[in-house]
Write a structure and sequence with these properties.
The chain is mainly α. The protein is built from eight helices and no strands.
Length: 188
């Protein structure tokens, strides 16, 4: 008998995902990018700890994100150079997009592994959804590069919260027709 993984309440999951970014925004507006980076690093670790305490497991994406936040946040603080924290999203987006594409090429549908309990799609549906998310992540990487290279640090921080988060939610919502079109019967 396999035990199903405990799932977080969707609102708590959203708070754990967006909370560190919100704290980053607030800390940046009050204390600057370096204090915000330190607060972000602590908040990401706390979010992982709360998630683990409540579910007794941690998904791979938050762990990878936390490691990159700690490495690039640490470099930002140690070298006193905000370039590293600005590169962090680009690296995460390229890593996620590239991993999804590699999964397609090696016939390992990573999205279907991660979201199989939430969505039940045909193999073609998973392939199309994976391509869409891979392209979306790579587009976010390009967008992050454009924004941090052409705008102020304060604008970039605001864009991460008020631009990327709504764009991601909108993109996710726009995938609903694909989810319906390629729905598969639920496995028992």
């Amino acid at each position: 008998m396999t035990e199903e993984k405990k799932q977080l309440n969707p609102m708590l999951k959203l708070a754990l995902d967006i909370g560190p970014l919100l704290l980053f925004f607030v800390a940046n507006s009050k204390f600057g990018i370096y204090a915000a980076t330190g607060a972000f690093m602590v908040a990401v670790l706390l979010a992982l700890a709360v998630s683990y305490a409540m579910t007794k497991h941690i998904a791979i994406m938050p762990v990878v994100t936390a490691v990159i936040v700690l490495v690039f946040g640490g470099l930002t603080l140690i070298l006193h150079d905000d370039l590293f924290i600005k590169l962090k999203p680009t690296i995460i987006y390229v890593l996620f997009g590239g991993t999804l594409i590699a999964g397609i090429l090696f016939d390992k549908p990573f999205l279907s592994i991660m979201f199989d309990q939430m969505f039940h799609l045909t193999p073609e549906g998973w392939r199309k959804l994976t391509w869409r998310w891979a392209i979306f992540f790579l587009s976010l990487a390009v967008l992050n590069e454009i924004v941090w290279r052409t705008q102020t640090t304060d604008f970039w921080v605001s864009f991460k919260l008020f631009g990327v988060v709504p764009l991601t939610m909108l993109f996710g919502a726009l995938q609903y027709p694909l989810l319906l079109k390629y729905a598969a019967e639920k496995k028992d």
